[in-house]
Design a protein that fits this description.
This is Luciferase-like monooxygenase. GO terms for molecular function: oxidoreductase activity, acting on paired donors, with incorporation or reduction of molecular oxygen. It holds the Pfam family Bac_luciferase. To bacterial alkanal monooxygenase alpha and beta chains. With about 325 residues, the protein is of the alpha/beta class. The protein has a single domain, classed as Alpha-Beta Barrel (TIM Barrel). Helices cover about 45% and strands about 15% of the residues. It has 12 helices and 9 strands. Strand 5, helix 6 and strand 6 form a beta-alpha-beta unit. The longest helix has 18 residues. It is globular and about 65 Å long. The N and C termini lie close together (about 10 Å).
Length: about 325
């Protein structure tokens, strides 16, 4: 396998029988553990009005995780920028970078990270903000690099700080934008893999070097479940599959223990929908993961693999992080 970076995406998911405080503690433990393993970064995703996800106040959580770790990069995967004023995000992440210099990433997405009613509450009934995503990204860049003291609006802290920006996406729209702006691009193949191939090809073909990045840098976020045996990995993966079934059927539940077979087994419509959402999911022992992920990396020209980890048992979850790391060495 070619040498690529390995990172993790976390939503501070609440497990069955636990609460949000325990979910955040679990995220802290995972971050500390993968830091020891040599993972490059851990990102947290902004979601709202979701009872079993504790990462809604993303910048606050990033600060908490950064304070509990030493050198691993911490960031957003992502901040849903249309939900916020670019100035507020510049100030928040400027503060984080000031407190934890050289460790903060700012991944940006245009989706609301929630349902439309909640998006209206976040955006104060202005749902047109997503159409100004490019303008908002560029405004954010300007706040960080501004050196003109005559500017009427400036970001403190934030101004003059080198905070890497990443464009996130699950379709080809953000691939075009990341290429145009010369920024690294992270694709959400862990739940929306359909346009992965197109997005990767567009990004590399259209990429324009910038002061931020000379060559394309493509991160693919996927679901990976590693275990000592492929059979055990398949068993553990039912927690992930059942979670997606709950999303599809709008019966959301906390992350639950694995089951002998997926709860939707024998219901073709749900089986097809779950398979479509989880096509970029890798399960197996170390040897299996090495081969499968190597094929994936080469096929889609991936520079960094970012893994989710929806495993119910915390010890098994940590073991999976280790097996994934060993598979990619």
């Amino acid at each position: 396998m070619k040498k690529i970076k390995l990172s993790a995406l976390d939503l501070a998911t609440v497990c069955k029988g636990q609460n949000t405080q325990q979910a955040i503690a679990r995220s802290v433990e995972a971050a500390q553990y993968i830091e020891e393993l040599g993972y490059e970064r851990i990102w947290f995703a902004e979601h709202h009005n979701m009872e079993h996800i504790a990462s809604s106040a993303t910048a606050v959580l990033i600060g908490h995780i950064a304070d509990k770790t030493n050198h691993i990069r911490i960031g957003s995967g992502g901040i849903m920028l249309p939900n916020h004023s670019p100035l507020v995000i510049a100030e928040q992440f400027g503060t984080l970078e000031t407190l934890y210099p050289g460790r903060i990433d700012l991944g940006l997405g245009r989706a609301p990270g929630t349902d439309q009613v909640t998006a209206m509450a976040l955006r104060r009934n202005n749902l047109n903000t997503a159409f100004y995503f490019k303008d908002d990204v560029q405004a954010l860049q300007q706040y960080f690099k501004n050196d003109d003291p005559s500017e009427k609006v400036r970001a403190f802290p934030g101004e003059g700080l080198d905070i890497p920006l990443y464009i996130l996406g699950s379709s080809t729209d953000s691939a075009h934008l990341a290429a145009e702006l010369g920024l690294p691009y992270a694709f959400a193949a862990h739940f929306a893999p359909a346009m992965l191939a197109q997005a990767s090809e567009i990004y590399r073909r259209e990429f324009k070097p910038s002061e931020h990045l000379k060559e394309p840098y493509f991160i693919a976020c996927v679901n990976i479940i590693g275990a000592e045996t492929t059979q055990e990995a398949a068993f553990l993966s039912t927690s992930l599959l059942n979670m997606f079934a709950g999303i599809i059927t709008n019966h959301r539940r906390p992350l639950s223990p694995p089951t002998e077979q997926a709860i939707y087994h024998g219901i073709p419509e749900i089986e097809k929908a779950v398979y479509s959402m989880t096509a970029c999911t890798f399960t197996g022992d170390q040897e299996t993961l090495t081969q499968d992920i190597d094929d994936f990396v080469n096929r889609y020209h991936v520079d960094e693999v970012m893994t989710t980890n929806y495993i119910y048992d915390n010890q098994k979850r940590l073991e999976s992080f280790r097996i994934i790391k060993e598979a990619l060495v």
